[in-house]
Every structure is written in structure tokens, then in C-alpha cells.
Amino acid sequence: MKRDELIQRRDELRDRLQAIRRDLRGGLEHDLEDQAQQLENYDALMEIARVAEQELLEVEATLSKFK
Fold this sequence. Notes:
By secondary structure, this protein is mostly helical. It has one domain (about 5-65). It is built from 2 helices and no strands. Helix 1 packs antiparallel against helix 2. The longest helix has about 35 residues, at about 30-65. It starts with a helix and ends with a helix. The model has no long low-confidence stretch (mean pLDDT about 90).
């Protein structure tokens, strides 16, 4: 992967993680059905965040070799 592509991917991953964190900070809805759906989605969001963070570390490590 080229340096410019890595920078673009890094930025995409950072944006994704920021959006996930924003969603998680939003708290639970007042409606119980909505809360149940949010809690089901919580595990999926956490896994997406974990994978994105791992990829971000790999991308940043690769980028550091370009300097």
C-alpha cells in the first residue's frame, strides 16, 4: 500500500472510531424497546471498534516506516 493510501485509511479508521465513541457516549433511549436494541448493538459496536483499533495500529506502524 502506498503512503497516501495508508494516510487515507488511517483517517477513515480514526473517523470510524470517533463515530463509534460518540454513539456509545449517547446513552440509552427512554423507550425500553429502543434500549433493548441499543444493548444488542453494543456488542457489535465494541467488536467493530476493536477491529478498527487493531487495524489503525497496524496502519500507523506501517506509516512510521515511511518517515
